[in-house]
Structures are given as C-alpha cells and as structure tokens.
Amino acid sequence: MINTDTKMVALIGNPVAHSVSPAMQNASFQALDLDFVYLSFQVPPAALAEAVNVIRGLGFRGANITIPHKTAVMPFLDEIDPAAKRIGAVNTVVNTQGKLTGYNTDAPGFLAALRQGGFEPKGQKAVVLGAGGAARAVVFALRDAGATVTILNRTHESAVNLARESGALSFELSESGLKSAMKGSSLVVNTTSLGMTPDVGSTPLLASFLKQGLFVFDTVYRPRQTRLLQEAEAAGCKIMGGLEMLLEQGALAFELWTGQPAPRDVMRQAAAEALR
Known about the structure:
The chain has 276 residues and is of the alpha/beta class. The strands form 2 sheets. It has a 6-stranded mixed sheet with strand order 2-1-3-5-6-4, with helices on both faces. It has a 6-stranded parallel sheet with strand order 9-8-7-10-11-12, with helices on both faces. Helix 1 crosses helix 9 and helix 4 crosses helix 9. The chain folds into 2 domains: 127 residues, Leucine Dehydrogenase, chain A, domain 1 (Rossmann fold, 3-Layer(aba) Sandwich), CATH 3.40.50; 134 residues, Rossmann fold. Helix content is 38%, strand content 20%.
C-alpha cells in the first residue's frame, strides 16, 4: 500500500503508454518487498524542466528518462556520471537528498544483451541506424568494446557529430550510403523508433540489405518482433529484439535506486507478460 514512506520512481518520456518498465520495475519491488512504486508520466519537451523539478521537490527516489529527453534532461540535473557525460545521454536519475545525478545504463545494458545473444563486438564492423539518445549509448558501447562503427541517420549532421565525438564513421541514410556502410559489416543495430507499435509496417532497412550471417539487433521491444527482425530472420540473419536490453538497463537502474541486486528473472517474466 502506498503511503508517505513509499519511495517513488518516475518514467519521463513522450510517449510512455507503450512502456513495460512500470510492470517490470513494480514486480521487482514487490518481489523484494521494497516500499517503492514506479509511475509513468507523459512529459512534452516544453515541460521537461518542470518535471525534473517535481522529481526533486516531491522527493522521488529517481527516474528513468526515455525518448525524446535523454540528452535534453542533462542541463537540469545537478551532476552527471562521467560515463553518461561522455556518451551525452542520460536514461537514469538518482535523487540523493535533493541532489539529482544522471547515469546511462543503456550502454552497459545493450552490451550485456548483445553478448548474451552470442555476439562479441571486438574487431567487428557494426552499422548503427539513428543518432539519438539510444544511438549514443550503443555507439559508445560498441566503440569501447573494440568495434568499428558506422552511423546512418536521416539528419546527416547528427550522424556526423556523433561520429566525430565517438571515433566512428558516418554516411547519409541513402541507398548509396547504406551500400557503403553495410559492406563487410557483421552487425546492424536499429536505435530509431521505426517499426514500433503502432507503426509496425515501417522498417529502417530494406530487406535487400539483409544477408545471411548478419546479426540484426533492434532496440524496439514492442512488438517483440518488428518488421526489421521478421525480414532479417527470413534472410537467414541472427536476430535480437529490444527486450533483453530493456531488462539489463532496467536492472542496472533498479540497483542504483535500491542498492540491491535486481531480480532479473522476475523482471523478464513481468516484461514478457506485459508485452502479450
């Protein structure tokens, strides 16, 4: 039962209705008998600063930050973890007696999920689609793990800037750009929202670029299997959806808020049930 002692954690994004994080985190709090509650709030960009002040003012224990606020939230925080500062994106906030510190659990969460899927990025060539907050985490994680990375984005300037910061390459998101980027690549990661419910008919990559032996990772987790993953599987690619990344980044956030090991099995089951 929620009372004055209950520690609140927020999900701040726009949109947030699709998120399974509330089900996943609340199940975890209950499993460990922790007096926490996780609530989602749809916050438009113009209200972001006010929302952060509410987190501080009402004594929330912390927050998850999702699309489109992962970079925009940073100036409103009191401190940024060095890894998150380098990445340039925050997805987790911890409130310590009114001091808000931003972290990035997307990068280690992505890398853990990728390795669980059997892909070791060291020495591999990867293509990342997108240049937003999620892309920043993926690109820096892959570069730190020893991969060569090429970024493609609809707004080429964003891809160029991210490539410059991370030591990656960039191409325009065009047929010729894709041909150049895909040559010799063993991994493709979609960090855009293309293919996410309700836009399930969209894909960021034409099926003609999907070849047998390629590993295709889609950070979208609703639906469980996007059009990109369906077409990749049909082409003989190894595939992974965004649920495992969601689980891993959520587990790391849980541990930051609570100081306790996350019950990953509980989280996985709750997230899977919420996606049915």
